[in-house]
Design brief:
The chain is mainly alpha-helical. Helix content is about 75%, strand content about 0%. The protein contains four helices and no strands. α3 crosses α4.
Length: about 80
C-alpha cells in the first residue's frame, strides 16, 4: 500500500476548493485513502502490463517503473 502522511496530502490540497468543501477532517481522510487505494490499483495493474512486455527487466529498475506509472496517473487525474 502507498504510504503517505495525511498532513502532506492536506498541505498539497489546502488551496483546492474540492478539498475545502469537505468540512470534517475524518471525511477528508477517508476520501484521500479511497483515492490512494484506487490509484494504487491502477498503478499495479498498469505495471503488470508494462512488466509483462519487458520480461528481463532488472529488479533495480522496478521501482522506477512503478514511480513513472504512479506519476502518470497522478498527472492524468488532475
Amino acid at each position: 500500500m502507498l504510504k503517505i502522511l495525511f498532513s502532506k496530502v492536506a498541505t498539497l490540497f489546502e488551496n483546492d476548493e474540492r478539498f475545502k468543501a469537505v468540512e470534517r477532517e475524518r471525511d477528508r481522510r477517508d476520501l484521500i485513502e479511497t483515492y490512494l487505494q484506487e490509484l494504487e490499483e491502477k498503478v499495479y495493474f498498469a505495471s503488470s502490463i508494462v512488466l509483462s512486455s519487458i520480461p528481463n527487466i532488472h529488479p533495480d529498475n522496478l521501482a522506477c517503473v512503478f514511480y513513472c506509472i504512479f506519476v502518470y496517473f497522478l498527472k492524468s487525474n488532475n
